[in-house]
Amino acid sequence: MQKVIYLLLRRMRLPLIVLISTYAISIIGMTLIPGMDDQGNPWRMDFFHAIYFVSFLGSTIGFGEIPYPFTDAQRLWTTVIIYAAVVSWLYAIGSILTLIQDQSFRRVLAQSALARKVRRLQEPFHIICGYGDASSWLVRELNDRGMQCVVIDSNQNKVLDLDVEDLAYSVPGLHADATEADALITAGLKLSNCIGVIALTGSDTCNLTIAITSKLLAPELTVICQSDAADTAANMASFGTDHVVDPFEIFGMRFAMMFHSPSMYLVYEWITGVHNAPLSDFRNPPHGNWIMCGYGRFGKAVRKHLAVEGVDTRIIEADLGLTDAPEGAIEGRGTEAGTLLLAGIKGVNGVIAGTDNDTNNLSILITAKTLNPELFTVIRQNHRSNDAIFQAARPDLVMQPGTITAQYIINLILAPLLEDFLKLAHDQDETWANVLVSRVAGVVEDIAPETWAAEISPLNTPAVFDCLIRGEEVRLSHICSDPRDRDVTLPCVPLLIKREDQSVLLPEMNEPLGPSDQILFCGREEARYHLEHNMHDHQALYYSRTGDDRPSGALWRFLTSHVEQKASQ
Amino acid sequence: MNLEKVIFAFFSILALTLNFGFFIGELDDPIHHNAYELFAALTVSLIATIMKFGDRAHIGALLLATSLVADLQLITAALVWGYAAHISDSGLTPMAVASIVSMSGGALLANLVSVILLVIESITFRR
């Protein structure tokens, strides 16, 4: 705001000086020019009358000759004043109008309005740089969960898109280049309630710059970056970027998991799923030979993970030299039958359309399916706006880099424990995963389960914490029971307890809790509310631990203890 | 040579001298204090104030503040004059003149500070 006032004052200097000079000269003239009173005596206007006269004359041009009719000399001067005043007012007003229409002024105005909005944010917020497919998902999901964020994008239209999105909380959007430190600071980088920076600009170099800037200016912030290339990712990690997200790598890993352990894949899908999404069904991909069209960063990541599972892939790539394709790769786009036949489409089990062009990918899919209807099809969808046609093409598996990135980041933000859990789960076998699937399936209905974490601390879970401090034992079963009937277990599955020294994977219900435990749950949304109530409310916890419904009012408590004392005597 | 500084110095010093010219003389004697001088001092002071608009330097802010003080005092003096000469029944009494002149004395002090700041600024200005 200060900047705006300065700019306004600076630009208004000359017009104001012109106005003041015009008025001063006019007033002086009026006092110097001889007049005549009603008796015909010579008379001179004094300052008081001159200021009064010029004031109403200059601004409205509706004047009466006061206090006596003017002499001709006075009338001549009045004519001069009329023109001078009108011209200088026009000049002053014109300057203001020009200033308001000035692009740089409007930009400063918009920036200071944004800075004000950001300062007014009460809750912790994230700065999201770049507003593309992944970011719009992310903003929506964070918004649904009541988390604030600020968006920076160098494209004015994308910032305007934010306003028309139907979001529960308004998201401040800044039109600026996020690689400039000033833009990040305007977006609130240095405010105490800024908790993280997420760089999703679509360019690795820009993301890298944003990460460096944020880490230098605010080292304690969590920085999450998207990166598609291994060397930038390593560079980002080297100066402390907290999380580097590579959607291709994540997809490659998950896809390989479908071959390795379908139950584990299902667990992944469920607990990392989108808020309120319907439970997904999936078809197991066949082992054997696969054809992969496009050997860019996506193709390389997927091929690497498939090779671990022993799945052989044949490459079709338009530019063999540039992508450094392996021996035996076929040159071509894969959109025409010839290339696919050459790659042996009739004898393979699956095809992956993984180029960076959505139209080509669809064309590959349709051509391949015509040649071999039994194929398992995997397709990469680069732009979310193509949703409708991709659904119509009915592929078995769609890979959307934006969605994958957004989901991964949401889990990082909302349930940091999830990463620990997934790492531990990865080492388990198929039987373990089957048990978990059946347990989770037992508590959820037809929408994906919620995943959330709880931390035992004086602030978050005062009831549990107080009990533990007093040396009383609290078990997992105590907090997982329905506060209305403690014999009913809430529809949730505790996935992990993390302590300083150990992690308990899938803890049993009689597991005792410690004072700094972090617990990861998965289950229905309603279970979460009851669980939090149990951990928060002393009465509820007392009931679930002992089965006694303790009186809460002071008077009733006194009476009960009195009666108990009497009884014991 | 910076033309902006020259013009500003001109207006600042002119405001001071005009102010001084009005102020000097017997405190309550209307003959010693000319209305035109007060008017000129006020006008020049206003222009000097506007020239400091939008100056983000620290000394610029101080100059703006002192100019505003001078303006305020001179406007008050002019208002008292207008009231005494035209609205009150007793006219321009020595008492009214005395309060007008002392107001302009206050403005004179502010203008003096303004010029001192200006001198300090030009001394520290090395180029």
UniProtKB/TrEMBL annotation, chain A:
The keyword Transmembrane helix applies. Residues 127-247, 291-401 form the RCK N-terminal domain. It is found in: Cell membrane. It comes from the Bacteria. GO terms for cellular component: plasma membrane. Keywords: Membrane, Transmembrane, Transmembrane helix. The keyword RNA-binding does not apply. GO terms for biological process: potassium ion transport. Residues 19-101 form the Potassium channel domain. The chain crosses the membrane at residues 12-35, 47-68, 80-100. It is a multi-pass membrane protein. PANTHER family: POTASSIUM CHANNEL PROTEIN 2-RELATED-RELATED (PTHR43833), POTASSIUM CHANNEL PROTEIN YUGO-RELATED (PTHR43833:SF9). This is Trk K+ transport system NAD-binding subunit. It comes from Thiogranum longum. The lineage of its organism: Bacteria, Pseudomonadati, Pseudomonadota, Gammaproteobacteria, Chromatiales.
Automatic annotation (TrEMBL), chain B:
It holds the Pfam family DUF6394. It comes from the Bacteria. The keyword Membrane applies. The chain crosses the membrane at residues 7-24, 36-54, 61-84, 96-120. InterPro entries: DUF6394 (IPR045655). Keywords: Membrane, Transmembrane, Transmembrane helix. This is Uncharacterized protein. It comes from Thiogranum longum. The lineage of its organism: Bacteria, Pseudomonadati, Pseudomonadota, Gammaproteobacteria, Chromatiales.
